[in-house]
């Protein structure tokens, strides 16, 4: 997508693109939805820029490979998006997933993420 096209996307359009890339486990498309100076805050620390975004989603996909995602709550408040979610994969499941996004000028500027991970091993 051209830079101008990215800038005119609504927060809802950014979220739709993000969700499709998440389900496809497409790191490049996920990273493309974030600003160069994005901040991702997790219980494990703060990550910066597109490399930090890539690292965050690499961890998520390692925790929940080929997961089935369930969005429980999706609320937009202007530039802010609040999500509650759960996910399950053959390896593990996540409950109590909560993300907050700040989306401005067609890109994700900041994200917080937290989830409880449980192994599916017997």
Describe this structure in words.
The chain is of the alpha+beta class. Helices cover about 35% and strands about 50% of the residues. It has four helices and six strands, in the order αααββαββββ. It has helices spanning about 5, 10-25, 25-30, 50-65; strands at about 35-40, 45-50, 70-75, 80-90, 90-105, 105-120. A six-stranded mixed β-sheet has the order 2-1-6-5-4-3. β5 (about 90-105) and β6 (about 105-120) form a beta hairpin. The longest helix is centred in the middle third of the chain and has 15 residues, at about 50-65. The radius of gyration is 14 Å and the shape is globular. The N and C termini lie far apart (about 45 Å). The mean pLDDT is about 95.
List keywords for this structure.
33% helix; 6-stranded mixed beta sheet; 4 helices; 122 residues
Mean pLDDT: 93
Hey, roughly how much beta strand do the residues contain?
over 45%
Q: How many distinct helices? A: 4
What is the ordering of alpha helices and beta strands? Answer: HHHEEHEEEE
Shape: globular
Structural class designation = alpha+beta
Strand order of the largest sheet: 2-1-6-5-4-3
| Rg from alpha-carbon coordinates | 14 Å
- Give the % helix: 25-40%
Q: Major sheet: size, sense and barrel closure?
A: 6 strands, mixed
Number of strands: 6
Terminal residue distance: 45 Å
The stretches of 5 or more residues where confidence is low (pLDDT under 50) are none
């Amino acid at each position: 997508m051209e830079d101008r096209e990215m800038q005119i996307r609504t927060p809802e359009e950014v979220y739709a693109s993000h969700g499709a890339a998440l389900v496809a486990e497409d790191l490049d498309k996920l990273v493309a939805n974030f600003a160069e100076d994005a901040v991702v805050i997790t219980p494990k620390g703060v990550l910066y820029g597109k490399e930090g975004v890539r690292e965050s989603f690499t961890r998520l996909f390692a925790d929940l490979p080929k997961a089935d995602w369930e969005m429980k709550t999706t609320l937009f408040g202007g530039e802010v998006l609040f999500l509650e979610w759960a996910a399950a994969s053959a390896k593990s499941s996540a409950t109590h997933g909560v993300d907050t996004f700040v989306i401005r000028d067609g890109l994700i500027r900041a994200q917080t993420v937290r989830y409880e991970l449980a192994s599916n091993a017997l």
